[in-house]
Structures are given as C-alpha cells and as structure tokens.
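With this grant's support, we have settled on a layout for protein records. An illustrative entry appears below exactly as we store it:
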Amino acid sequence: MKKDLLLAITAICSIVMITACATEDNPPVWEGKTTSLFVATDRHEAGNGNNLAAAIQKVANRNGIVTPSVVLLGGDYVGSGPDAGDTGQPAFTLADLRSEIFSSLNPNKTEIFFTYGSHDRNCTDDYSAFFSGPHRCDGYYIYGISYAQMAYATDSLTRAAVALYDEQGDNIPGNNPPSANNDSTMPMPLLPSGGLRAYNGIDIADPYGISAESASARFAAWADTLSGHDPIIVMSHVPIHASRNDNPGGLRWFNTLSRAAQKHDIVLLFGHNHTLEERGNSSDSGMYLLAPGDSITVQGDSVQGAQRQQLPFTYANAGYLKLGWCTLITFNDTDADGHPDYLQLRRFSAIGDKATLFGSTDKPNPWLITLKAK
C-alpha cells in the first residue's frame, strides 16, 4: 500500500515539477515535512560583484518556496585570485558573509557553513572557522571538502608544496603562469614542466586531511559508521571532472563516494570553474547536473590520468554567486518519519535570469530525485 502511495506521489510531483520548470514563481506543492538547504560558491567580488545577499533574498520567505534552514557555501569568498598575492586574497572576516545571509534569514533558525577555497587564506577568523567533515542536519548529512583535499592527490605532495613555499615563498620563477586553458587565476598543483607548485593555504590545518588521500579515507571511515540510508550532500570547491588539470584528487574522491553511494544518495557539489565561462568557454555547463548512470571524465593524478567513468551519484554545480547563481536543495519527507523520501535541486538566479535546464544538460530545472529506501 505504501509503495502504491509513494508511486502516486512521485507521479504527482513529477507533473508539478515539469510545470514548474517554466518559471521560478510556480514551485511544487509539497506534502508532509519539508526542509531546505541553500548552496552556492565563489562569492568573491571581482568581475560582476558579490551577489550573496541578493541570492539569499531570492529564496527567503517566498510563497511556495521552503525557506532554507541551512546555508552551505563552497569557498572563494573574496578577491581576484591567488596569483595576485594579498591584493587578490584580501583579509576578510566570515562575519561579513553572515550579515549578508542574515539580512534575509532568521539567525535563530539558520545554520551556516563555509568550506575553504584557494582565495581564502587571509581570513582573519583563522582556519577553525571553516567547515570540513560531516554535520548532521534534519534528515540528511552535509560534508565539506577543502581546497587542498581535492587539489592534491597525496599528503606527501601537499607537504612538499608547503615546504617549497616555506623555503622560497611566492618568488619562484614560473610558479604562477597561466595554465594551458589560459586561466591565470588559479595555480595548478603541478607546473607544466611537471614540477610542484608552492602552496600556502591555511587548510593544511584541516583535521580531516590535507589531500584526497587522507581526506577521502576519513570520509570512508565516517560513512561506514552510519546506519540507514539518509542522503549526504558533499560540497567541494574544486570539481572532480577533468577540465583545468588542477584537481588530481578527483579520482580518489570519485571512488570513495561511489562506494558510499551503494548505501546513500549522494549529491557532490562543485564550484571554482566560473573563469572558463567568463572567458567564453562554456563547456563546463554540460556538467551542471549529471545523474547516476551518466558518464563523466574524472581527473586523476599524474599516474592515473583522466578516466571515463559512470556516475553512481548526483554531480551538480552549486551555483557561481559571482555570476548570479545559487541552488536550493529541498528535502520532502512525505510521511514525516524523519527520513526524506524526495530531494529536489532547483537553480535560481539573483540577477533576473531564468533557467529551464541545468546549463547545457538535458536536465529540467528543477530536478526531482526519489531517494533510497529507508
């Protein structure tokens, strides 16, 4: 009987979802208990400006939209990039971001989490203010991955990059040249010659690991302790797909998340690659939403290379705030038993644009996922 009811609800939600694709002002009507999570990356004010407050306002206290009780941001909060030194990575405090969020959301009813990106090393709050590892929310988990945990494949490489910076600082010939795709705003872990780039990110203090090697092992150990099948939302500033050659930890994370996806619905969110679009390369828009069963080319280290894989989890762009975009993830618990039955990804623009699809994919916006059995 319950199975028939769930199938009926699925059909109704699917119809409503397709109808809602045409406009942000025609959201689905949920039954049972709902809660939502706001996600986005790349707030930094270079270029088009800071759209965080406007994006939060877009999803707060609107008719038919579930106001988020959790905000999860994915790094790169200020500046123009690491190549510009302290000018490109100015000092800032996360209190500024909180004030922008609380301009539209109730501080007594909203949890906020900030993962670390490569622009963020001069945060005056020090690294303890950033989020990594797991956190239990209302019927789901969130998990944070820092920049170094994706940008470096092994702990030994991270330590070597830090030692190189301690020895020579920023004054290393060729340490910050443009990469092969003409994106000069982000140094790759390796030089075109194969030599290691220096690294001075404060996420080397992360207790959950300093590279994909140690951090993915910590995730796996944590996931093994979980009972039930509650979904896990993972935020990584750096993506796993092959594009800029600056994410050699991607394959380790892909393999680890794939194992966890046997038991849990997983959504892996990414940011970081907005500079490609700003320079006319729209290829990454084809990665804005990939579903289980879709194919993806995952970046590995210098030995593994890039490998074509089939996804067993959902992979999505969180929304580049710098370009005006964000995503609202809504969980629907139809029988209010504490375990959500459905998850919806819905992409919003803070600057007036509307999207009926996720980027150049064939996935309609919003996108509904039926979650695993409880």
In short: DSSP finds nine helices and 14 strands in the chain. Residues 34-370 form a domain with the Purple Acid Phosphatase; chain A, domain 2 fold (CATH 3.60.21).
